[in-house]
Amino acid sequence: MASLVVVASWIVLGLVMATSTTKVEAARAFFVFGDSLVDNGNNNYLATTARADSPPYGIDTPSRRPTGRFSNGKNIPDFISDALGSEPVLPYLSPELRGDKLLVGANFASAGIGILNDTGIQFINIIRMFRQLLYFQEYQSRLADLVGYNEAQRIVSDSLVLITVGGNDFVNNYYLVPFSARSRQFSLPDYVRYLISEYRKLLRKLYDLGARRVLVTGTGPLGCVPAELAMRSLSGQCAPDLQRAAALYNPQLVQMINGLNSEIGAKVFIAANTQQQTNDFISNPRAYGFATSKVACCGQGPFNGLGLCTLLSNLCPNRNQYVFWDPFHPSERANRIIVDTILRGSTDHVSPMNLSTLLALDYKTRT
């Protein structure tokens, strides 16, 4: 679990410093795919070490109990649900996801997974991307049983989809161990091109399954999370090999998304440009209201970056001052800023337009 998931989408930050999330006009179904940055409890139902079901996870939720989110409180999908005016979507594996709850959407994400099926093999029983897409098909059948085929298709077509995946393919695959199988198979540039080509297939499959508004996030500062600082850079400098990976990956992801939209002939996929403002955010956290971007709130060892976040870990008293909640994952407050930027940021951060603009245009079209 020490190498669970690198922060993938959280540095979409820009200069937006709002403390509340913008609300858009019309509620719609919401579907979530990806890794631990967006998992809200699916792995609680699986026999895996990639879980966040023990304290102090969830310490800042109303119940102060762990929910399966890799956060002290809300994660990115929660804040997007707030913006949509909806209740948080349930994990797909939750027995509570039935009846009218299906109308809200579903979260298929699973901590530890990547674009590639061999990513996160150490976690064994996780919901890999091909399985998440199969579950999406299964969900649609269940929804059709509830509301009829045509209405189910409309709900999916009008929905918002979030997919956050890719960081693990570097941290829990290519760079997991020295001379890993993938690093022997590919040079880094060739590996990035391979990842992008495989990701394109996943996005095209989402489109084929009816998704028409898909928010795609890239990787953040892979070499700057506390776990990587603790393992690779005791001086506190970001690990250069992982930073190079992110620098190669993110522009190619945006290019691929633009090409896919051109091929389809519509602005289906929205690219959250995680490369923008990353260096400034890491080097000057106080400009964003944080005390540190190097030390995790919960953990142990250098930068609180080693091992798991447990009841025996160091725990900061004020989570709002920390960019990172644990060695890999952002705090609730960082997640809020991420979503505010996705909603209201400039095209430097979200393209071809921010999420609020896109959803407002959809609302006008439907009315």
Describe the structure.
The protein is of the alpha/beta class. The protein has one domain: Rossmann fold (3-Layer(aba) Sandwich). The protein is 36% helix and 7% strand. The protein contains eleven helices and eight strands. The protein has helices spanning 76-84, 129-147, 149-157, 168-174, 181-185, 188-208, 226-232, 240-264, 278-283, 332-344, 355-366; strands at residues 30-34, 105-107, 160-164, 214-217, 269-272, 298-299, 314-315, 350-351. A six-stranded mixed sheet has the order 2-1-3-4-5-8. Helix 1 (76-84) crosses helix 10 (332-344), helix 2 (129-147) crosses helix 3 and helix 6 (188-208) runs parallel beside helix 8. The model is unreliable at 1-26 (pLDDT under 50).
CATH topology: Rossmann fold
Strand order of the largest sheet: 2-1-3-4-5-8
The string of secondary-structure elements, in order, is EHEHHEHHHEHHEHEEHEH
Helical/strand content category: alpha/beta
Instruction: Tell the overall outline.
Output: globular
Number of domains: 1
What average pLDDT do the residues reach? 90
CATH architecture: 3-Layer(aba) Sandwich
Instruction: Characterize the main sheet.
Output: 6 strands, mixed
* Proportion of residues in extended strands: 5-15%
Radius of gyration: 19 Å
Q: How many alpha or pi helices?
A: 11
What is the multimeric organization of the chains shown? Answer: single chain
Number of strands: 8
Poorly predicted sequence stretches spanning 5 or more consecutive residues: 1-26
> Span between N and C termini?
47 Å
Q: Would you state the CATH class? A: Alpha Beta
Q: Can you give the helix content as a percent range?
A: 25-40%
